[in-house]
């Protein structure tokens, strides 16, 4: 394992003053994932001592829209602006490219800032991960999901993470009673104080199942609902919040054991699950079949295992198409 480079050497590297051997030393050192947290810590310290220009995305977008609106409403300008290459660019083109470059730089700066500010945990299709955060909170991340955790100040200045996908949280209660907040990409958040729950957050659908403790769900610009153990709250595309009770909240995280538990779950919902977790597109050709509900536990590590079990259980015909899988009921004996 390469020896850690001195702090000043890293500062010189950030300033663009490193020699080729020093750059190689740093590159070899960063191959060890455990060293990256210290690297970002020093980078944050160096940037705070050497402030640089940071573009604010929203004002840049506003200026871009205003410029385009001006162009659309202004009288047609002179037909061209002379350039050294001999080509002719009209002012509309010049404005468009200038605004596009500004927008690209703004977005690039915003993405780089997020890369530095957050440590990101990701899972691929069909993959699950379990890990522990610095405050002791344990997280199980379902397939095709992303969790972002602040690199600095987490547990000191607050505990707020961002989830896109599905995860089970077992939140550690701290002596100072510090809250733990999970936010999603839309106006939906779960605030907890030492508890265990599953949060599903994909597209416009949100679902929280509480196993232990107490949580407060905030949605639609300030609306709130308090949950007790066994509560199951879901928010669909319609914006209507539904609240149910379940005697077995642990079944909602059965995916940790590569098992799928369905309780009056429609085949249409299961096809969405196959897309979310495995990236598999399933077309159900019969609308009545799509609404058929299923209850039971199905063990499956791969999508084809779950599909085969469902096909046997419901007596379905499954066909491979260029767009994915087509599912339909058997119509006669010749289909067998």
From TrEMBL:
Any stretches that span the bilayer, and where are they? 94-112
Under the heading Pfam families, the entry gives: FecR (PF04773)
UniProt keywords (A-Z) are:
Membrane, Transmembrane, Transmembrane helix
Domain FecR protein, which positions?
120-216
Gene Ontology molecular function:
sigma factor antagonist activity
Query: What PANTHER family does the annotation carry?
Result: PERIPLASMIC SIGNAL SENSOR AND SIGMA FACTOR ACTIVATOR FECR-RELATED (PTHR30273), PROTEIN FECR (PTHR30273:SF2)
Q: What is this protein called?
A: FecR domain-containing protein
Report the source organism: Spirosoma foliorum
């Amino acid at each position: 394992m390469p020896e850690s480079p001195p702090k000043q050497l890293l500062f010189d590297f950030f300033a663009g003053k490193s020699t080729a051997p020093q750059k190689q030393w740093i590159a070899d050192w960063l191959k060890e994932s455990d060293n990256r947290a210290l690297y970002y810590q020093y980078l944050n310290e160096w940037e705070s001592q050497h402030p640089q220009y940071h573009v604010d995305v929203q004002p840049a977008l506003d200026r871009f829209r205003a410029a385009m609106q001006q162009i659309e409403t202004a009288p047609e300008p002179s037909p061209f602006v002379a350039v050294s290459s001999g080509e002719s660019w009209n002012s509309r083109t010049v404005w468009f490219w200038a605004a596009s470059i500004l927008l690209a730089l703004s977005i690039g700066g915003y993405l780089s800032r997020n890369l530095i500010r957050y440590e990101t945990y990701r899972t691929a299709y069909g993959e699950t991960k379990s890990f522990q955060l610095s405050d002791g909170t344990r997280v199980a991340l379902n397939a095709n999901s992303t969790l972002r955790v602040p690199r600095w100040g987490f547990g000191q200045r607050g505990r707020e993470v961002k989830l896109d996908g599905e995860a089970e949280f077992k939140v550690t209660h701290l002596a100072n009673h510090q809250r733990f907040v999970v936010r999603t990409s839309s106006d939906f958040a779960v605030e907890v104080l030492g508890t265990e729950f599953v949060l599903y957050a994909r597209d416009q659908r949100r679902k929280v199942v509480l196993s232990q403790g107490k949580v407060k769900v905030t949605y639609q610009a300030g609306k709130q609902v308090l949950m007790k153990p066994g509560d199951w709250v879901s928010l669909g595309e319609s914006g209507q919040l539904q609240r149910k009770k379940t005697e077995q909240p642990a079944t909602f995280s059965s995916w940790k054991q590569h098992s799928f538990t369905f309780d009056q779950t429609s085949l249409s919902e299961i096809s969405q699950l196959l897309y979310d977790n495995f990236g598999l597109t399933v077309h159900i050709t019969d609308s009545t079949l799509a609404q058929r509900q299923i209850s039971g536990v199905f063990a499956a590590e791969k999508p084809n295992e779950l599909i085969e079990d469902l096909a046997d259980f419901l007596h379905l015909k499954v066909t491979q198409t260029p767009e994915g899988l087509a599912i339909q009921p058997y119509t006669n004996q010749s289909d067998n």
